[in-house]
Amino acid sequence: MATNFISLRELEQLASVKLDSNAYQYYRSGANEEITKKENIDAFQRIYLNPRVLRDVSKICTKTKILGHQIDLPLGIAPVAMLKLAHPLGEEVTASLAHQWKVPFTLTTLSTLSQSEVAKHNKDGLRFQQLYIQKNRQLTEALVRKAEKEGFKGLVLTVDAPILGKREADEKQRFVLPPHLRLEILEELAKEANIQLQSVANNQGSGLLKFFAEQLDQTVNWNDIKWLRSITKVPIILKGIQCGADAKLAVEHGVDAIWVSNHGGRQLDTVRSTVEMLPEIVAAAGSVEVYVDSGVRNGSDVYKCLALGAKCVFVGRPAIYSTAIGGREGLNKMFQILQSELVSTMQLMGVTSIQEIKSDGIVHKSKL
């Protein structure tokens, strides 16, 4: 069976068989030598659990709140580009399953499904729109207005990509978007700006990718956070914060949440793993909520992130791979595994609610 996996660590190998090399290498690849990509996973093994015993753990509650919205698990789906590369239903599957599990869903700007269609499948779920501040600010504002109209409850501004990182495996593969797929959001934005796109190798999708890359703005700075704040009342989440100093600046600029991310190891290689950045950023963020992604492959990893101060933990590649392997059933299995592992970790740690998870429940190997 396609969903006959029992661990998220199996997913990459299973996906390598299921996906064609064009799609697989795009999703799998990290920057340069992929040291950070590997570290994101390995770093969790250097954090040990410190359980308490003889506590009543017969009833476990995994509910929590982010930005004032209740969610049933401290988990969410990270923004993932071009999900129809992985499965014909792509974003339809991830948006609807996030609604079913009552967890946040983040839609990428590079989506192969429109914001309005995603909203239909996500219904009254908690959904965020990922975006970049583009050279043409009118494009950015148009994206924000459509997100507002379609009921998105947060804007996830990616701030670690003034340029795209060098992904060697991706370059060797010479990735192209299959001609039957459309980058729905970018298409709408291009039409909004009345931009005539030049086809690349007779591939409209690749033309849009070129358009997107050309719109990345190397001049974006903290003043642009003020500008974004001035045009919308939707909560702003900065994704890609990687140190305490920037977390402090984010707080000073009035953001609503900070998302610790190194882009899954796809941007700058040899930066720290996100779980190792987390304590420094949580300390600097004060009362501002902190989320995290990258490297999570077990419910115990989720627990460790929560113990270090994260309010929610987002997954990217596991969601891609499980969807590729089994569609809706595959992604549902991923959620089942993470939920089961988180609950069992909580029971074995002697805690019964997310609010009880504290930093005294973990010990870093370096301190032993």
Tell me briefly what this model is:
This protein is α/β, with parallel strands linked by helices and 368 residues long. It has helices spanning 11-18, 21-28, 35-42, 90-101, 115-122, 137-149, 168-173, 184-192, 204-215, 222-231, 244-252, 274-285, 299-307, 317-349, and strands spanning 47-49, 64-66, 69-71, 75-77, 105-107, 127-131, 154-158, 236-241, 257-260, 289-293, 312-315, 362-364.
Mean pLDDT: 93
Strand order of the largest sheet: 4-11-10-9-8-7-6-5
Largest sheet: 8 strands, parallel
Structural class: alpha/beta
Ranges with pLDDT <50 over ≥5 residues?
A: 197-204
Strand content: 5-15%
Total strand segments: 12
Helical content, roughly? 40-55%
N/C terminus separation: 43 Å
Radius of gyration of CA atoms, rounded to a whole number: 20 Å
Number of separate helices: 14
What is the molecular shape?
Answer: globular
Order of helices and strands: HHHEEEEHEHEHEHHHHEHEHEHEHE
Cofactor: FMN
Pfam family, one: FMN_dh
InterPro entries: Alpha-hydoxy_acid_DH_FMN, FMN-dep_DH, FMN_HAD, FMN_hydac_DH_AS
Domain FMN hydroxy acid dehydrogenase: 1-367
